[in-house]
């Protein structure tokens, strides 16, 4: 499997001091990426923050020197109409734009012309994200079968292939939920076919569940409450990394 990448979810950080929390998590606690959960109160039943906040906290963390390098802002877009926000997030300093498969076909709540432009297939959306100079990820909710991904991963058009797949191990919307081991066969199926793919898991991960996720083949590990709720976040981050590398 590709290298282990630990991406703490700042959803569980103290929002009143988000900038310092971000820099501390990368520079002191040794996180690789920061996982930034964007929720619109529509695609998921919760609201977090948008591009203006991402832009403000971006300056607290060094930009990655390589495409997947340390400090990558991994924006998990739990929003309807994901195409509409690519440019704003690019400007804000997002490095990896990970949209939900289930939202990629969603209509825009705007004019008919805008609607037809925003109604896009996952492959087209991935190309659009790449054309904007960002890495592209595609996420699946627990109820979506992994089979929807095969055509996308096999696309003959290189620019329409994702840089990462995210398999949700909770129903998106909130931190601190119980890990769903039922989602791991999706990870295993992906890993069997794609030894080099970045496969991210998100939801309920921590010292108690990392073994199963690593065994299934996940290499990009999101953890919110397990990292920010810990006495020693650095210790949790290195334990997660060690388990994936073993
Ligand atoms: C859930 C978010 C997750 C969340 C994970 O909708 O996508 O990234 O922050 O939190 P924990 O690790 O606490 O389950
Ligand atoms: Zn997330």
Automatic annotation (TrEMBL):
A GO biological process held by the record? pentose-phosphate shunt
Q: In which pathway does it act?
A: Carbohydrate degradation; pentose phosphate pathway; D-xylulose 5-phosphate from D-ribulose 5-phosphate (non-oxidative stage): step 1/1
Catalytic residues, per the record, are 37, 202
Question: Is Protein biosynthesis found in the keyword set?
Answer: no
Cofactor list: Zn(2+); Fe(2+); a divalent metal cation; Mn(2+)
- Quote the InterPro entries the UniProt record gives: Aldolase_TIM, Ribul_P_3_epim, Ribul_P_3_epim-like, RibuloseP-bd_barrel
Say if the entry is tagged with keyword Transmembrane.
no
**Where, by residue number, does substrate bind?**
9, 76, 173-176, 204, 224-225
Give residues annotated as binding a divalent metal cation: 35, 37, 76, 202
- Which EC class heads this enzyme's classification? isomerase
Recorded hits in Gene3D superfamilies, A to Z, give: Aldolase class I (3.20.20.70)
Molecular function (GO) terms for this protein are:
D-ribulose-phosphate 3-epimerase activity; metal ion binding
EC numbers on record: 5.1.3.1
Catalytic activity field: D-ribulose 5-phosphate = D-xylulose 5-phosphate
Relay the cofactor remark from the entry: Binds 1 divalent metal cation per subunit.
Task: Kindly state which keywords UniProt assigns to this record, in alphabetical order.
Answer: Carbohydrate metabolism, Cobalt, Isomerase, Manganese, Metal-binding, Zinc
Tell me which family the UniProt entry assigns to this protein.
Belongs to the ribulose-phosphate 3-epimerase family.
Please state what the protein is called.
Answer: Ribulose-phosphate 3-epimerase
Q: Which organism does this sequence originate in?
A: Zalerion maritima
């Amino acid at each position: 499997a590709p290298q282990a990448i630990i991406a703490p979810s700042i959803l569980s950080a103290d929002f009143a001091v988000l900038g310092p929390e971000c820099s501390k998590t990368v520079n002191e606690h040794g996180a690789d990426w920061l996982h930034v959960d964007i929720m619109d109160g529509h695609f998921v039943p919760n609201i977090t923050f948008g591009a203006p906040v991402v832009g403000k906290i971006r300056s607290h963390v060094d930009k990655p020197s390589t495409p997947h390098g340390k400090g990558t802002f991994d924006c998990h877009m739990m929003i309807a109409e994901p195409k509409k926000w690519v440019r704003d997030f690019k400007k804000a300093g997002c490095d990896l734009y990970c949209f939900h498969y289930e939202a990629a076909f969603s209509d825009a709540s705007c004019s008919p012309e805008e609607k037809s432009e925003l109604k896009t297939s996952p492959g087209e959306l991935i190309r659009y994200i790449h054309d904007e100079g960002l890495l592209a990820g595609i996420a699946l909710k627990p109820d979506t079968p992994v089979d929807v991904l095969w055509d996308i991963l096999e696309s003959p058009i290189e620019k329409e292939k994702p840089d990462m797949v995210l398999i949700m191990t909770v129903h998106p919307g909130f931190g601190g939920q119980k890990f769903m081991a039922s989602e791991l066969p999706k990870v295993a199926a992906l890993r069997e076919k794609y030894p080099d793919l970045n496969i991210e898991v998100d939801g309920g991960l921590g010292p108690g569940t990392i073994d199963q996720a690593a065994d299934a083949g996940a290499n990009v590990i999101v953890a919110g409450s397990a990292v920010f709720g810990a006495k020693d976040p650095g210790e949790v981050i290195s334990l997660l990394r060690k388990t994936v590398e073993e």
